[in-house]
Every structure is written in C-alpha cells, then in structure tokens.
User: What shape does this take?
Amino acid sequence: MRPGVIAVLSAAIVFVAVAAGPPLAARQAANPQGVIGGVLAQQEARGRRGGGPPRPAPRTPAGRVLLQGATPADKGVWLPGPGITGIPVKPLDQVPILPWARAVFADRQLNELEPHTRCKPSGVAREFQTPYGVEFVELPEQRKIYIFDIGGPHTFRTIYMDGRSHPANAMRTAYGHSIGWWEGDTLVSDTTNFHEGFWLDRKGLPHTERLHTVERWTRKDSNTMEYSLTVDDPGAYSARWTTSVILTWEPNTELFEYVCQQQNYAHELMVGEMKSVDRTTVVVP
Assistant: This one.
C-alpha cells in the first residue's frame, strides 16, 4: 500500500476514535454509584439521532403532553437510558432493605434465576429494563392507558384512568392493579395487588405481596422521559424509598414479534457462577 493511502487511513481512524469519545462502559465506570443523569441520557439520544437539540414533546390539541407519537403514523418506543440495565434501579447502599431481602439480593447476584428469562412477565422498574423497550398507547375513549412490553412474554399492562379505586380482592399479578391520573405533564400510576414471582428490577431487588408503588412518567422533550418510582413494601424494606431513571425515545420503531420459548434456559443468564444449578423446582426465587 502506498504511503499516502496509509496516511489517509490513519487520519480517518484517529478522527473516528476522537469523534466517538470514550465508550459508555468507561463513563459508567467513572460513575460508581450508577446514578446516570438526564444530561448523559440526552447526549446519548442526540448522538444516535444526528445531534442537535431535541424537539418539544408532542401534545394533544388540548395541550396535554403525549407519551406516544404525535400522530398514529409517528412510531416509536421508550428504551432504558444508560446504566439502567447494569445496576440496581437505585444503589443498594441507598435502599432501606431488610436483612432477609438483602440476603436474597446477594444470592441473585450469583445465581441469576430470573423468572423473566423463562418468559414470565415482570412489573415495576423491571418492565422498563428490557433492551427492546416499551410502547405507551392511550385510548381516551376507553379511559385506559396500555403499556406494551416488547420481547419476553407478550404481555401488556393496563392503567385505569376512569377514577376507580383498587378492588378489595383483585387477582395478584406481575403488573398488579394500576389506577392513574394526570398531574400536569406527568402521568401518575398507583399500583397494588402484586405477586412475588418477579424481580423488582433487573439486578434482583426483592419484594413481597405487600408492595405498593407510585410511578410517575414525565416527558421532558421529544427524546427524553423521566421515570420516577416510589416503593412502599414493609415486608422487604424498613421505609418507603424513591428513585428515578431516564428513558429515551427511539423513533421509527414498532412492536415486533418476539418468540420467547418457555424452556429456553438462556445459559448466560441462568447458570449464575457457571456451576451446577438445581432446576427441579417449578418456582424460582
């Protein structure tokens, strides 16, 4: 190869390396508590979309913010922001976790026997920590908002917006029973009636059937939404606690078919320390 061509290629490689900047993993390592702010999330989103400031959030003709596209033709999904899949939804030293729940969490770091990897639905923060994202669909005439999971168990969650209360003896599910309302540009959901068969977040924070959550989704602009979660579960935590993360909008993406096989043990996620795992029980921790 001629010297001139080598020089051009070398310059191009240097330019790409400088323009790309440090990888996300390096930036996360510089933030040991795992608290990734909205500024970084927006920078990541803008980088994927060619730069420039984000547009304002879309709104209805009446002026209320939309959590979906501006029109039915404006497709898109909400993806987890940087760091949300690699750390607990809140650093463990900031969570008032009870000793038994801390021991369960520690075990889950070694033996990742998560129900989600066996095609089970997952509620609360875990719902928003899948790599394919979620889609909000609001049906004002039905006074309901649906949150569709992409991938996994082909499930969706319903938030009732008609002013009803929680039923006294509702069936316990992974999504619980959600009632919602708007506070300005923020969608608020109050949820009870959870079962214990899912992880509260991707890293394995536990909970009990006494779990009661309040979630808030605030769309900041076209690309960014803050997800705030308040956990009240006296069975697993000594006090109520709150955290928040950033979700980013991925435009031009729709729900797609995802085949989750019931007996797919997902070897990298299910064998923990790469040692023998007892799979004889139906219920997993």
